[in-house]
Amino acid sequence: MALFGVFATHSPESCPLNNRQSRDTLIQIDDKIKNITEKFHVRKIHGFYLSVLEHQWTIIVEADTAHEIETMCIEAGISAFNTVKIVPLSNFDVVMKRIRST
After folding, report:
1. What's the CATH fold of domain 2-100?
2. Going by C-beta distance under 8 Å and a sequence separation of 6 or more, which residues neighbour residue 88?
3. What is the mean pLDDT of residues 83-96?
């Protein structure tokens, strides 16, 4: 199991605050994400944050693989109007232990 950051960015024109279709998709994402995480071996969503003025979402996810997160983003609709980047994350303390032991 690993921790990943999911970073989704959209344009101002496709923002759910400005675009009816994106708004409807976002409402569906809220319902879908709660029902499909187990299907894609997402153990936990640690946080789902939105930066309204930056048009960026940050989702911290505990999952088995980035490929399953990718498929979940497609099925949930996140990638319908966002560019999505999935990044493996490491806990700061774990990295510091590794650095200090070398």
Report:
1. Alpha-Beta Plaits (3.30.70)
2. 2, 3, 4, 66
3. 96
